Amino acid sequence: MEEVAKRKAKAEEKPQKPSIYSLEMHDLENWLVEHGDKKFRAKQIFDWLYVKRVTDFDDMSNLSKGLREQLKDKFALTTLKTVVQQTSGDGTMKFLFELHDGYTIETVLMRHEYGNSVCVTTQVGCRIGCTFCASTLGGLKRNLEAGEIVAQVVKVQKALDEQGERVSSVVIMGIGEPFDNYDEMMRFLKTINSDDGLNIGARHITVSTSGIIPKIYKFADEKMQINFAISLHAPNNDIRSRLMPINRAYKLPDLMEAIKYYTDKTGRRISFEYGLFGGVNDQVEHAEELADLIKDVKCHVNLIPVNYVPERDYVRTPREQIFAFERTLKKRGVNVTIRREQGHDIDAACGQLRAKERKEETR
């Protein structure tokens, strides 16, 4: 109980300094000019942060001592404490990171034939309340600052540096609803996409949302070439409302209108994430209904055999039923794949490691 009390007290502390990782290049240039320095120093600082990946301002040796002291005085060089690091037999790595205030978040490194993908978290907890997800246990604690999201990618990249590898893609599908922390998410995207930042191409970045409709319209107007995914999980209003309470506020027909706006505005294909839950949404008739729902949308369907979460009641769809669902969609002309299972021998489900290790956070 004493440890729980300490953690709660620490969680109530507020950060004294903003993270330097939260600054885009133009923000840092403006700050330097305002403090009597040269704009070009911003590129040098970004090089130290994202290429050399230093963890101390004093290591930025081509900056004057005065500037280094100013940076230390004004900004935090966000570092995440690794509480747990799990490695699966397939190479998947899951990290539980502790933040400055004692809260914890999850980040996952997934290895594919096409490269290393990092799944990042945008919030401590989640308020969306999807009934199949461990991330929402205990509700939303707070939003992450952009720099705390950036730091996850940097931290994983430093782990890959030891193996001579690099992060090649990023998915925003970890704990939290990205569009519920929209502004910080956008700052994160622009930083990791920047040539001077982590230089991850827009088409190697994917953002997923449960369906906050006003933000979908806003995101479409950003005109970014970033991949966009919708957590759909149901072919009709009734089932979606059962699985995802957000559907009661943003109903499926309205969501489909917003999706159509996005595809028309950007010309880009959208991905539908469809988790298969035994006896709930995984029958052939559900596949037929899904095909009718999305028939006019430029899209791809990613079928996800659900990971079992002890705190939830859903069961995995039998293997043959998964293939029957896929075949039905293909017969209807739907572009569909089954997500390859990764990390099955570790706490793979989103939010599961955090729930296991820090129960007081997820009550």
UniProtKB/TrEMBL annotation:
<dbReference type="GO" id="GO:0005737">
    <property type="term" value="C:cytoplasm"/>
</dbReference>
<dbReference type="InterPro" id="IPR027492">
    <property type="entry name" value="RNA_MTrfase_RlmN"/>
</dbReference>
<feature type="binding site">
    <location>
        <position position="208"/>
    </location>
    <ligand>
        <name>S-adenosyl-L-methionine</name>
    </ligand>
</feature>
<dbReference type="GO" id="GO:0051539">
    <property type="term" value="F:4 iron, 4 sulfur cluster binding"/>
</dbReference>
<keyword id="KW-0408">Iron</keyword>
<keyword id="KW-1015">Disulfide bond</keyword>
<dbReference type="InterPro" id="IPR013785">
    <property type="entry name" value="Aldolase_TIM"/>
</dbReference>
<dbReference type="InterPro" id="IPR048641">
    <property type="entry name" value="RlmN_N"/>
</dbReference>
<feature type="domain" description="Radical SAM core">
    <location>
        <begin position="112"/>
        <end position="345"/>
    </location>
</feature>
<keyword id="KW-0489">Methyltransferase</keyword>
<dbReference type="GO" id="GO:0000049">
    <property type="term" value="F:tRNA binding"/>
</dbReference>
<dbReference type="Pfam" id="PF04055">
    <property type="entry name" value="Radical_SAM"/>
</dbReference>
<keyword id="KW-0411">Iron-sulfur</keyword>
<dbReference type="Pfam" id="PF21016">
    <property type="entry name" value="RlmN_N"/>
</dbReference>
<comment type="function">
    <text>Specifically methylates position 2 of adenine 2503 in 23S rRNA and position 2 of adenine 37 in tRNAs.</text>
</comment>
<keyword id="KW-0004">4Fe-4S</keyword>
<dbReference type="InterPro" id="IPR007197">
    <property type="entry name" value="rSAM"/>
</dbReference>
<feature type="binding site">
    <location>
        <begin position="231"/>
        <end position="233"/>
    </location>
    <ligand>
        <name>S-adenosyl-L-methionine</name>
    </ligand>
</feature>
<keyword id="KW-0698">rRNA processing</keyword>
<protein>
    <recommendedName>
        <fullName>Probable dual-specificity RNA methyltransferase RlmN</fullName>
        <ecNumber>2.1.1.192</ecNumber>
    </recommendedName>
</protein>
<comment type="similarity">
    <text>Belongs to the radical SAM superfamily. RlmN family.</text>
</comment>
<feature type="binding site">
    <location>
        <position position="126"/>
    </location>
    <ligand>
        <name>[4Fe-4S] cluster</name>
    </ligand>
</feature>
<feature type="binding site">
    <location>
        <position position="130"/>
    </location>
    <ligand>
        <name>[4Fe-4S] cluster</name>
    </ligand>
</feature>
<dbReference type="GO" id="GO:0030488">
    <property type="term" value="P:tRNA methylation"/>
</dbReference>
<dbReference type="GO" id="GO:0019843">
    <property type="term" value="F:rRNA binding"/>
</dbReference>
<feature type="binding site">
    <location>
        <position position="307"/>
    </location>
    <ligand>
        <name>S-adenosyl-L-methionine</name>
    </ligand>
</feature>
<feature type="active site" description="S-methylcysteine intermediate">
    <location>
        <position position="350"/>
    </location>
</feature>
<feature type="binding site">
    <location>
        <position position="133"/>
    </location>
    <ligand>
        <name>[4Fe-4S] cluster</name>
    </ligand>
</feature>
<keyword id="KW-0819">tRNA processing</keyword>
<dbReference type="InterPro" id="IPR004383">
    <property type="entry name" value="rRNA_lsu_MTrfase_RlmN/Cfr"/>
</dbReference>
<dbReference type="InterPro" id="IPR040072">
    <property type="entry name" value="Methyltransferase_A"/>
</dbReference>
<keyword id="KW-0949">S-adenosyl-L-methionine</keyword>
<feature type="binding site">
    <location>
        <begin position="176"/>
        <end position="177"/>
    </location>
    <ligand>
        <name>S-adenosyl-L-methionine</name>
    </ligand>
</feature>
<dbReference type="GO" id="GO:0002935">
    <property type="term" value="F:tRNA (adenine(37)-C2)-methyltransferase activity"/>
</dbReference>
<dbReference type="GO" id="GO:0070475">
    <property type="term" value="P:rRNA base methylation"/>
</dbReference>
<keyword id="KW-0808">Transferase</keyword>
<keyword id="KW-0963">Cytoplasm</keyword>
<dbReference type="GO" id="GO:0046872">
    <property type="term" value="F:metal ion binding"/>
</dbReference>
<feature type="active site" description="Proton acceptor">
    <location>
        <position position="106"/>
    </location>
</feature>
<keyword id="KW-0479">Metal-binding</keyword>
<dbReference type="InterPro" id="IPR058240">
    <property type="entry name" value="rSAM_sf"/>
</dbReference>
<dbReference type="GO" id="GO:0070040">
    <property type="term" value="F:rRNA (adenine(2503)-C2-)-methyltransferase activity"/>
</dbReference>
